[in-house]
Amino acid sequence: MPDSANGSPLRVALLGCGVVGTEVARGILTNPIDLEARVGAPLELVGVAVRDLATERDPVVPRDLLTTDAEALVDRADLVVEVMGGIEPARSLILRALRGGAAVVTANKALLAERGPELFEAADAAGVDLSFEAAVAGAIPIVRPIRESLAGDHVRRVLGIVNGTTNYVLDRMTTEGLDLDEAVAQAQALGYAEADPTADVDGFDAAAKAAILASLAFHTRVSIDQVAREGIRGITADDVAWAARTGHVIKLLAVAEVIGPVDDGEVSVRVHPALVPVSHPLATVRDAFNAVFVEAQGAGPLMFYGQGAGGRPTASAVLGDVVSAARRRLTGGQGLRESKDQDFPVLPAEAAITRYQVRIDVEDRPGVLAQVAGVLAEHGVSIDTVRQVSASAAVHEDLAQEHGTAHLLVTTHAAREASLAATVAAVSALEPVREITSVLRVEGS
Amino acid sequence: MPDSANGSPLRVALLGCGVVGTEVARGILTNPIDLEARVGAPLELVGVAVRDLATERDPVVPRDLLTTDAEALVDRADLVVEVMGGIEPARSLILRALRGGAAVVTANKALLAERGPELFEAADAAGVDLSFEAAVAGAIPIVRPIRESLAGDHVRRVLGIVNGTTNYVLDRMTTEGLDLDEAVAQAQALGYAEADPTADVDGFDAAAKAAILASLAFHTRVSIDQVAREGIRGITADDVAWAARTGHVIKLLAVAEVIGPVDDGEVSVRVHPALVPVSHPLATVRDAFNAVFVEAQGAGPLMFYGQGAGGRPTASAVLGDVVSAARRRLTGGQGLRESKDQDFPVLPAEAAITRYQVRIDVEDRPGVLAQVAGVLAEHGVSIDTVRQVSASAAVHEDLAQEHGTAHLLVTTHAAREASLAATVAAVSALEPVREITSVLRVEGS
């Protein structure tokens, strides 16, 4: 792997030329003077690896830079930018680049969440940088702040809205009263959601980002398999309406937190819809925007907000990494390595501790509330508040219920997931209980 | 200046042992294992320079580390942390450290805003790092994101709430209807404001931060002398009440923006109170919190939110810089240097272009609105909206006015500061105009 002498160009290879790749190419090709000044040497885009040379592309990408031989391209680069996505061949190409001594910038969240340690070890063995700001929350600088700015602090909790599609869907349900299918269809029509929205709606995308954030925040390896995952498919228009009545909005959150001492605890990492109080900064995140809320011991609460997807925003994050990596390539040295010194145990899903709001349809007669409360007490689940809304007391017409049914809205104190599951089963077996209509976690209070 | 071999400790000198210095010492002395793992070598606090050895201090700082000989301390450090504040002797000590080859981490906004170029040149000449995350917005990672994450993007505008004291004061005026003096007294009682609140209330602190943010965002040297500055002393309870009625809150903003092409424009940097629409993310920043809103060409809108002051939050930012600087000290290389490649002209205050809301007390009779509108037209100031509130139409008792007076609320399109000043003078000379009660800029719409 040849190196660049001072002043001679740094050779950049681009793997992938989709929406993000095209914007990365545009940045390198149309801002050469700025980037050169910041790096201290020119950046030369030496090639763009694509699957099919014949595909029609934005004219900003010169045809003579296109190649289908990604391996040969990697071998002649000082810096490799991977924006092709997926596990293979991205993984093999990144390993090849790192082992050959090239710095790598990637936006590949799935690969990092599944195979991160392998990549970090290869980078460390070669003494080169592996940067991935664009892998989480698009344009929002969040990887660098957690990895570097908070390197002298202890992070307690990360709460992130890291999937723009589901935030758009939930926002439309909240503001327009749409049901899930209608809101998903609207997101698809606007290009926010894929034809098959599974990766977003079922929380897979958010889970990959949760794994990456947890690894950074807690200096502990967390893979996507360790992330408890629940998507938004079960969220109904009724859930959203009830959330509003109790002063909440429903958000799909990536949650990573330390249970126990901040320097010797256990890590819980999960993705699920949650009730967020309207007064919490995350509640104000609208449309397809992303935001990550971080609580650190010294810094206190921090929030980072911006666009989580899209070609230009993601390319902005990639190019920031390119400048830093190129600068180090030029001046020597290596950035922060993978930090896994805390190495906390990662808790299984059922050991997570959260607050819950449980909505129960019960017979509207005296004594039912006491019965339900009794079951919670037996299971050691402590009640924060109970709100009983009987049919006659229902203020809103759209909540008018069948005669003789009341709604119980039970909000618990923090309880283990496993205790709650057992409690819900026991409550639903009570004779006057007609239906458990929803069980939602409460976060951010 | 001796260097550290791999594994042997990096020697850290701490200059200043006030609220922030004490927390930095605590971080280094009580988290040694974490920091060592992240840096790759132990950090040894070799001394703490203070003015008076006899002052009572937090017991976390060992007495035998204290010294009044700051120069000798600097000379035996690999890394110097300056948290003493003020121009001298901080400036001389930082220059001494840099010239001797030590990396420097500083939280000194006043020094950077007044003498930044001198310090950056010394750092660059010695090939060492000068880091200053804590100098702007306390715990909020904002220097590193603008300097590094956005290094491949073009920033168009920065709008920051960067002074917690004035945000607290304005927030109390907004939520409790206090007048300025009452709110300042409350801030003083809580320790948010100094006995002499000039630096905060008159915008000097925010102006220093504006200069630093503008320099970073636009790769252009901006000193505090080039920042147009207006504090919040003129803001009345009436201004705050009227702001609410027009869907705004009043915030003290640090504004830095490019006028003209984003890669070949002119820079306007200013600090002033402004009307911010309640729907803007900055409007939700409460109490003494800080937030910085950044608009970049590629990334789009970004916001960074958190605590802008206080010992532990500021120390968190300092320690993040310490880890990065120590890591580079160990592995070689240098971070990003001062970036001044764009070198845009900085506009004088009167050339700034903003929208205004002007509140005018006029005689309540037909034709006055037309007269005022005519004066604006003559001066080339385009009107966005005019709202006329006559005494009889005033809904709120506290707005009940003397008989025969109406309020005109004129919101302009973007206009040059100089044109607006001339316009206001001409309007106030009109016969039916009784008083110009306020002229406030409108930002973030």
List the helices and strands and how they pair.
Two copies of one chain form a homodimer.
Chain A: E1 10-15, H1 19-30, H2 32-39, E2 43-49, E3 66-67, H3 70-75, E4 79-82, H4 90-99, E5 103-106, H5 109-126, E6 130-131, H6 143-149, E7 155-161, H7 164-176, H8 180-189, H9 198-201, H10 204-218, E8 228-229, H11 237-245, E9 248-259, E10 266-277, E11 289-296, E12 300-307, H12 311-331, E13 353-363, H13 368-378, E14 383-390, E15 405-412, E16 415-416, H14 417-428, E17 433-442
Parallel strand pairs in A: 1-2, 1-4, 2-3, 4-5, 5-6, 8-10, 10-17
Antiparallel strand pairs in A: 7-9, 7-11, 9-10, 11-12, 13-15, 13-16, 13-17, 14-15
Binding site for L-homoserine (chains A, B): 194
Active site (chains A, B): 209 (proton donor)
Family (chains A, B): Belongs to the homoserine dehydrogenase family.
Short description:
Two copies of one chain form a homodimer. Chain A has 445 residues and is α/β, with parallel strands linked by helices.
Written account of the structure:
Two copies of one chain form a homodimer. With 445 residues, chain A is an alpha/beta fold. Chain A has three domains: 10-139 and 312-331, NAD(P)-binding Rossmann-like Domain (Rossmann fold, 3-Layer(aba) Sandwich); 143-307, Dihydrodipicolinate Reductase, domain 2; 352-442, ACT domain (Alpha-Beta Plaits). Helix content of chain A is 35%, strand content 25%. Chain A contains 14 helices and 17 strands. The first copy, chain A, has helices spanning 19-30, 32-39, 70-75, 90-99, 109-126, 143-149, 164-176, 180-189, 198-201, 204-218, 237-245, 311-331, 368-378, 417-428; strands at 10-15, 43-49, 66-67, 79-82, 103-106, 130-131, 155-161, 228-229, 248-259, 266-277, 289-296, 300-307, 353-363, 383-390, 405-412, 415-416, 433-442. In chain A, strands 7, 8, 9, 10, 11, 12, 13, 14, 15, 16 and 17 form an eleven-stranded mixed sheet that branches. In chain A, a hairpin with a 3-residue loop joins strand 11 and strand 12 (300-307). The first copy, chain A, is elongated. The relative contact order of chain A is 0.13. Residues 1-5 and 394-400 of chain A have low confidence and may be disordered. At the A-B interface, helix 2, helix 6, strand 12 and helix 12 of A face helix 2, helix 6, strand 12 and helix 12 of B. Strand 12 (300-307) of chain A pairs antiparallel with strand 12 (300-307) of chain B, so a sheet runs across the interface. Chains A, B: Residues 357-445 form the ACT domain. Chains A, B: NADP(+) binds at residues 15-22. Chains A, B: It catalyses: L-homoserine + NAD(+) = L-aspartate 4-semialdehyde + NADH + H(+); L-homoserine + NADP(+) = L-aspartate 4-semialdehyde + NADPH + H(+). Chains A, B: Its cofactor is a metal cation. Chains A, B: One of its GO terms (molecular function) is homoserine dehydrogenase activity.
